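Task: complex structure prediction.
Instruction: return structure tokens for all chains below.
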Amino acid sequence: MTPDERWAANRKFLDDAIAKGDEIVLATPFERLHSGSTYERELRYLASKGFRLDAKAMRLAAEHKGKGAS
Amino acid sequence: MQTIESEIISRFGGFFDREQFTVLRLVIDPEHFGNEVVICSSPRFRLKLVKDRGEFLFELSPEAGKPWYPLEDVLKVALGSKRFKDYHPFFAEDPIGTLALYIPQVTQAIHAKEKEIATLGQKRGQDLAHDIFGSPKA
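Output:
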């Protein structure tokens, strides 16, 4: 898979999760969050879709429930 | 499709031989969407390779039973932030090549400055998360 193909597959997975309207639990700790990583790209994508970080950490909640990926 | 063992041998085999690394185990991590994890040991420290969504991540641990720390954080402490910044383009291109250049410094840091490395990693991750999401929801 090329990086673009991989990102397309990752984005589809995220879009499916967004469409379900669920909270997203982060399985990877922030200690593994690096600039330029796929993890960073995924979090920035989720932030662009209205997800916000829960203070209790490692969970992302949509600002507007049911808001799907565009 | 290339297996992770053959990929590691073709990409990092020379480094493993020179630094006397032996592969201890290979696991598929079901809690992290099937990440492939390879744990190796050398006389100096342990090295973990995590293949996550096609990318390799590298973590170091001083010895069995101790926590793992991202290679980037260990190098930053080993070289100092300013010097690491100068090397960052090379590190981004070739993390293991960068590690190979600084084995003595990395060995010293992973054994003697563990707390500093852990604190640095937590701060880096939190700062980047804050940059992405802004202040967390109360």
